[in-house]
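Possible regression after last week's pipeline update?

I re-ran a chain I had predicted before the update to compare outputs. Posting the input and the new output here so someone can diff against the archived version. Not blocking, just want to make sure nothing changed silently.
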Amino acid sequence: MTQKNTSSRLLRVSWARAIVIALNACAALTIVWLGGTSLAADVECVDYRESFQVIGQAPVPDELLGLAIAERDGYIYVPARTGIGQDPTLLVYDVSTLGDPQLVNAIELDHLVDEITIEGDFLYGIVHLDGFLIFDLTDPTSPILRSFSPAPAPAAPVDITVQSGIVYLSSRSAGLLIWDASDPDAPTLLSTIDPGHEVWNAAVDGGRIYMVGDVEQVTEFDVSDPSNPSLVRTHEFGILWMDGIAVQGQYLFAIDQTAFYAFDLELGSVVAEREAFLYNAYDIEVDGNRAYVSNSSGGTLVFDVSQPSSTTLIGTVGAGRTQTPTSGDTAVIGNRIFMIGSDGLLEADVSYVGPPMLLSWHDHGELVRNIKGVALEDEMAYLVGFGYLTVVDMSDPNDTSVIGNLALGTALECVAVSGNVALVGSATGNLWALDVSDPTNIVVLDTLVLERVLGIALYGSHAILACNTGGVRIIDWSDPSSLVEVGSHAHPGQALSVAVEGGRSYIAASSGGTLCLDLTTPTNPSLLGSFDPGTQVLDVDVSGGLVYQVTSLHGLQLVDFTDPAQPVGLGTVDTPYSMEAVSVQGDVAVVGSLDSSWHFVDVRDPQDPNIFGRVNAWLGGYPRHVAFGEGFFVGGGNQSASVVAMPCPLPAPATAEIPQRRSMVSGFSFPNPATGGTSFRLTSPVGQVAEVDIFDVSGQHVRRMGRLHPGQDSLEWDGRSDSGAFVESGRYFCRFSLRHGEDRTIAVTILR
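New output (post-update):
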């Protein structure tokens, strides 16, 4: 393995920034992993395949879907348009069958509806900046319009809340309008609340209503007599641009463009603030112990609010799809949620309850800001960013703390750690060697002036640096008090990232693609080959001779560098937003994407990698870097850092039973995957002969290889069947059968 968030809910601006990962690495777009980190805490994994997955989908009849959704008795209602500039409709979906939502009606409307809610047998909807209407749902498949009530100009309502037949309209210019809709055919305006600010969203609970808008406060009114509301108090929370609120008991939950909040209404204070960077969040709904946040740039986020002072992100759903996952509200029916997106109506199962995705959280001001590199070594995490090297105690990943730091006075780009020495690079060109044996007293050992370093990987006593426009620089750090440059390799474009494996370095370049260098002689690295995808490679990692690169055009692409002179491009996978970084551990590639999330990619089949899970980057900012521990990774963002649970090991692929009696001592094949032949290597008991056969995934015999005699430790297969023809691409199994003892089966993937 290698070393390596508008003033209205109706108006949104998408904003995403580059995500880059660095693991024991430097600067933007670098990944390096120093293996061997072993932590004492027992960290559980998360099965992202089961956690909050989409289980059903129904299309929309035409182009543009609305921003609202509501549910009643197994039916979902969605206001929509039948095309840009055409008539609006109200879509009705039957969701009574698990995983099989069906569109059963599309009712033409005279008004464009922005927001809806349901109480009893009636559906209430805001007419775009104009007023509200009421539908009768006695026949749930065929809603009947009962009334339309225009709001007094220039109210411009933007949100609607209903309780006991009383309608509350939030207005950007007229405060809160209160209507009596007990007669659905003739609602009457009862009163108007002027809280002294615009009202974007309101939540009613019992006889109280809570309003938020363009001020840093929540305004609470007594509406037990809706015709004569009275001010109770104003909660000064110091939070601006709250886009959605929900009330449950004594707690008010809110979202703004950067975070999720829990307020204790009795104490009048914020009891929890969890940064989630919801740049396109539209709504929040609380149901029991869970809160659901609709966020178009990251799907629906699910929070555990059973302990409001300690909210936990337990899942995300709807992102990682081919188009925008959600663009409006979320409806909850038991353990199912329904979301709106350009893909249509999405249904997800949220019954799965596993370990939290987020294990712990760091926010230490300037000590953890704008993180450009992360490294793990001996139960310590080393973070570099805006001027500081910060050391975090990782002995318990669920309860971490900063134990030391060093101000280096400039923008730091990278860090790599081995033993008691940390190598840190900066944007101004300094490379520091630091003694970190005592994190409370970090000592500078030496400084080497180079140029901006964007990537670093350790190769024995040498550090391989990706030095922006300076290509690759090789530093001997065997004496960390005397850093010496011993080699270099220049190439066109910028060197953006570096990974090392097996005496070779792989360089992600802004032009020329991924380059492979021979490090056998570090003083004179030579170019062995390159793979050019026709666009700049942003980041690269390598495992088992297989290179994982992310580009601006092709997403994640796997490349077989077994023969570096003739590398072969394999499978690709993309996310709804551009990828920026990649790191690999075992059968999983962790990819950073511009939708502010990590995507987990199954890379067991190099020809067909696929995304099987995703976690929103609840990292105090855009996630930039990651370092792997046991069952978790440490992620850095531009505001803070977090510890996120890794995916559980992927199950073995379903294949036919291979004829097999027992299993041998040990063995492997190389190269694997192979584009031509491969060599099977194993350890066999002394004095025993092994019969060797090749089978395909269906269990059919492919090739009789003969016998492996005592003293032999390898056997070559040229990739041909018994007929002499080359086998097709796929997965094959080589079985070594002993007459006395155990057998062994070794799997190999053949790529043509």
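Follow-up from reviewer: compared with the archived run. Residues 1-41, 320-327, 656-665 have pLDDT under 50 and may be disordered. Marking as no regression found.
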